[in-house]
Amino acid sequence: MSDMRIALVGATGLVGRTLIARCVGLPGIRLGAIARRRMELPPGARMEMFVADTENWAETLRALQPEAVICALGTTWSKAGKDEQAFRAVDERLVLAVAHAAREAGARQFIFVSSAGADLASKHLYLRVKGEVEQALMKLRFTRLDIVRPGLLRGARADDSRPGERLMMLLSPIMDLFLNGRYRAWRSISAERLVEAMLGLAREKAGGRFIHEHDALLRAARRFTG
């Protein structure tokens, strides 16, 4: 049985780096990562790494011919210079460009890292844009679409100082205890558990459109680790 071909877009962020590390020595997966800049790969990584300008990503995806595409693209309000159009250029337009390219490359499945609280009607720009992107992805007719909505992501980010987020990570074990009922979706999750959930979802054969929040992500991760 041949290895499953997965393309990762957004390889240099927390989720991308964690996914690459988790795939070291993992059988059954042929990973191809696409990024705008070079990055150091973990020891033992056996994968294809493509560094290209964003306008060439569609060509790279066509060459890879992935069965599944994992999109972990995203920026922050601060990195975007607190400019809405600069923020949307990455979190909306680039994500959707990748999705269209994935569809044209014949990808069966698209896995998108969204956010807890994503909502078209949100007054918070970040959550509103995530909601808009989710709705647009629903229209692309992938055989299977998986939207993952993590709460606070725990993990060490490379070259990205977020003191507020680091404080939230320290407090998350206590804060999570108070997030119950509909607020459970906001509970924190480690980047390792998130990527295990996504790798587990990539193994699913059923078609359809699925949204996975905190508890569903933990279940998917448990299925993956067996």
Can you put this structure into words, describing what you see?
This protein has 226 residues and is an alpha/beta fold. The protein has one domain (4-225): Rossmann fold. The chain contains 7 helices and 9 strands, in the order βαββαβαβαββαβαβα. It has helices at residues 14-22, 57-64, 84-104, 125-138, 163-177, 191-202, 214-225, and strands spanning 4-9, 29-35, 48-51, 68-71, 109-113, 144-148, 153-154, 189-190, 208-212. The strands form 2 sheets. A 7-stranded parallel sheet has the order 3-2-1-4-5-6-9, sandwiched between helices. A two-stranded parallel sheet has the order 7-8. Helix 1 (14-22) packs across helix 6. The longest helix is centred in the middle third of the chain and has 21 residues, at 84-104. The protein is globular. The two termini are 20 Å apart.
Major sheet description: 7 strands, parallel
Query: Number of DSSP strands?
Result: 9
Helix percentage range? 40-55%
Shape: globular
Instruction: Tell me the strand percentage band.
Output: 15-25%
- Give the ordered list of helices and strands: EHEEHEHEHEEHEHEH
Number of helices: 7
Cα end-to-end separation: 20 Å
Radius of gyration: 17 Å
Look up the CATH topology. Answer: Rossmann fold
Uncertain ranges: none
Report the CATH superfamily.
NAD(P)-binding Rossmann-like Domain
Name the CATH class: Alpha Beta
Structural domain tally: 1
Content-based structural category? alpha/beta
